[in-house]
Fold these 2 entries.
Entry 1:
Amino acid sequence: MGPAEMIMPFRIIGSKGMSHVPQGMKKNMLFSILCEFYNPSVLCFSSARYGSDTETAIPEEIFEAASESGSYKRGDSSFYALIDNFSNSGDFCTLEKVLQRMKRENRVFLEKSFITVFKAYRKAGLPEKAINLFYRMVDEFQCKRTVKSFNSVLNIIIHAGLQNRAVEFYFCVVNSNDINITPNLLSFNLIIKSLCKMGLVDRAVEIFREMPAKNSVPDVFTYCTLMDGLCKVHRIDEAVSLLDEMQIEGCFPTSVTFNVLLNGLCKKGDLARASKLVDNMFLKGCLPNEVTYNTLIHGLCLKGKLDKAIQLLKRMVDSKCIPNDITYGTIINGLVKAGRADDGVQVLNDMNERGFHVNMHIYSSVLNGLFKEEKYDEARRVWKEMMESGCKPNEVVYGVLMDGLCQEGRYHEAEEILHEITNNGIMPNAFIYSSLLRSYFRSGNCEKALSIWEDMQNKDFAPNEFCYSVMIQGLCEEGKLEEAMILWNDMLRRGLMPDTVSYSTLIYGHCNSGEVEKGLELFNEMLYQDPPCQPDVITYNIILNALCKRGSIARAIDFLNIMMDRGCDPDPVTCNIFLKVLREKFDPPKDGKEFLDELVLRLFKSERIHGALRILEVMLQKHLPPVALAWERAVHNLCKPRKVQTSIGRCWDCLIR
């Protein structure tokens, strides 16, 4: 359809049905109808058909049809309609041609039209185009920029996650003498938000303090943003002080304000101040909402106060505040981690009774807890209820079930579950395969584990480092060091980086077969891997045990020094390795008291309190009394001076009575 045919219906309407409308207004109305009726992309016609050197965005007949009448300015509103339409459709190529035509015809550009384009750029994820157009507004299109267009572009950059670019753009515009734009409240809120996301909280505070001088009063959003930024960098006291400041300035906090501070206090574990803040919240007339309760419940669970968390859940329900999946999930996870899976099941049952949809994450947590506590019958009952409720398990929940069945020794059932997973169109993950492999190695069925591994390869499943680690460990424990090395080299060939467990497993395999030097070579390889793979206390203990077994005591002592110099503290296994060698390899045998005393004092001197206390526990269990200096350091680090003085005072009172 050509332009003549496109405008023909409107000519008919114009000649018959719009005779009472003034001619100039009539043409403009017809053009607007055309813009609304046709898709904007249809309004673009090629130069091949119309003999023009360039592609024109709009048919020439439509522009030429417009006539001037009185004060009517031909075509401006039509151009504005086109800008809106092309922006909404995302046709930025044609939109640019419209802008260029407006410039050639000296049309009047409106800031609101540019803001419409900016919004389209945000939707399309094109922040740089928005910045470019912002700078072109005055120089190229003679359109005055105000803080509205500035805020629009700033918001686009932040929405795209380009915080650095947002800060750069803000200061470039605000500090420019040519642009002459003064930021308003929205501008300040946006830049403070960006700075806080970048962790530049001090700079955000500086901007916040500049606001009154620039006739901008902070609002609730400003305070909340800054409080959240301070809490995230663990400056809770400063965030709480802002609460008093905002009220002095006449800005009243909302539930969101209190929730931000409560979240910071609960993550810090300061439940006493959190409780006082809730009281303050009620005094200010702010009622707790779901976020408030969820934050407090999460804080209580982190501190292990699970019974109080359950009480708060009941209070939440009594307050007509409906718990959600996050509320229940937080409590159930806390109970499971504390070894109270049965209580977690009760909360799960409460969810079902109240008609809440239990998600896969909650089921996974409960089942995992029950299997870990070896409550297999209860776990299978929960699984059955889950299936009967219509919940379709995903690979994570299937993995928990398979791991539990393997722990119980039900290997055949676990393998049946594996077939069920594949039949349901679910790709088994690394955890599922690893659980099955580990279970067969533990049962001594190495051949079956190798069969599962081969099946994985046939199904084009790409095993990760964890799968390789399980296989290498199993083969090393079976004495199949050669097969383990084949898998190790295969893992390296695939570009997978061995982790600490993989290295420790292979080092153990070599040391166990008498190849201690090869184990030490692998240890050095760990340290010089890129990135380096840090050995843990288990790795060190494997090598220490191998050196002591072959009588290399001096070398073992040197290796212990390397271990401590690298920041790895010895554990009870380390102590037992040396106590055994001192007892069996020396004549007369040594009890190891002097060795452990020196170890404890060295750890205390390095301020490695936890490590020192673990060695002290070993000494007490072995009836090896530590030296007085070790006791003194232990009391000094464990007890607060005031509490010690109070305890001594109470003992003295009891003695003189």
Entry 2:
Amino acid sequence: MPATGGDGTARINFVSELPGPGGPESGRLAVPDLNGPLYLVDEETGEQTEYLDAADTFPDFVIQPSLGTGLGFVAFHPEFAENGRFYTVHTEAGDALTSATPTFTPPEDTRVHGVITEWTADDPGADTFAGTRREVLRIGYSWFLHGLQQISFNPLAGPGDADHGLLYIASGDGDEVPNFSDRPLDPGEPQGKLLRIDPAGDNGPGGAYGIPADNPFVGQPDALGEVYALGFRNPHRFSWNPADGRLFVGMIGEQSIDSVYDIEPGDNAGWNEREGGFVFRRDDPSNVYPLPPDDDAYGYTYPVLSLGRNSGVSLVGGFVPPDGVYPVLDGRYVFGDIVSGEPRFAEAAAFERGGERAPFHEVGLVGPDGRPTTMAELAGGGRVDLRFGQDAEGRLYLLSKANGKVWRVTEVTGDAGQRPTPGCAVGDTVTTDVGEAADWAPLTPGLWRFENGEVIQTAAGEEPSGPRRPFEYAVLTAGPAYSSFVYEATVRIDEPVTRNDRDVVLIYHYVSPTRFSYVHLSQDNTIYPHNGIFVVNDADRVRVDDQWDGQLGAPPAIDDADWHEVRVEVCAETGETAVYLDGADEPLMTATDTTLGAGRLGFGSFDNFGRVRDVTVTGTPAEPAP
């Protein structure tokens, strides 16, 4: 992309395709640069032209102190090829704070305005803009962060559909920590909302737009009819699932939890009483707390996918590509981490409102030269500032706001970057119904209880002398030792979620207190000993999983206080190992290691505590038994 910023780099925030005559495809991509220009890019050649420059158009246009200010988004009306209308988001400060009037009463400490402008092109096919413009909506925010975010038309709504031509607007809370306001939960304020308007209507404020009659708060006293859903901190990105039309909203949390929501009209995501699926307290913004027993009375909507900040710094929402565009990604929601640039995916079918959070998985990248790579490498190191874009065919684009470059995803092969899983026949000897004290041999019996089929470690153990390894565990003595096996169990970490390094371990191929392998399931994946597969062989544990890249491991396995189903598959002959979470089809972790090859199984932790139930082992008994 052209260099336009103060550091010589375009700050690319989004990619979409201009609708073409008679259909959605035009072959022209729209690429807004936060510095002000809106570029049109030829979809096949990559050649670009500057279509317009918001910085030159609006005297009070502001891009400092960056933080999401500038020309953020563009949304083309579905009938742009005929009517020439499109809409942009930009920010203003300076004289605009006193000379321009926001659509709604602004906060007293307003420091920036988010503005939506309607542009009407004289010639929709031209490569540079000529035509007219008008202001549609202006919102005041207390801070430069979390202002107006994405705007979009529902691409699944055709002529005659109720949603056709209606503009969705993501509006952040605009709050500066620690000055948290009540505005996101107040349906009478535009901040912290998903708004929905009809740009062609005139029953809104000043006749600048219409308010759809089926919006959920229409006619309610002290509520804005524009509000579609509320209770958001920073609803950074949203998209529609092409399979069923569900609206997925990705929200960046405060300091603990980022989330994806399946949003329906009138939903309340709870910010800033809730952060993800936890209680948020304004007096302690660095932590989250368990939900109260009477939580149902509040009517909050909780995420279908969430991740603790240990798995990244800020979630960027993405898309579910239409079936057939990338067959490997059929039905899969692709998203990522803004700072590291790591792309991920989750099964959209696992997004269950009111149910368990869906598991998610990492995606490997291969660069234009055919070599494995990362977004950090493509972006030149450091902060990536990952964003996603999509054209009318559903093809995905990866963007780095850090260097102003755009990459198109040309092919997805394998199984979305996951390593092959063990393929050997593990055997058919079964050990199960092992919830009694007689079935286990704890290191420290006084730290364990056996109740209602649960094997419970009640407190953290003492660090043992010798090699670095889990502090406390119980070995399963019922049944045989195993070589190849499938170890299935349901586990829970009982340590409070406010502790980042909380963990439990599943032990396998146990031979002695200083010779065994284990799977570490943790809330943290940022340091070597956490959230991976390890071997202790008369020396400090050694990490053997494929996911560790020197800085991050697999996405955190457990970052809540819920029960989770875990399945460990090991093929002793090849050493292939795979760890699955919550019934996922793809493994969370994989490894290939033949160090030990056989032994008993167990459960425990390092310096935390938790519990296990529903243990079933199916496999081949070791001969001779270790």
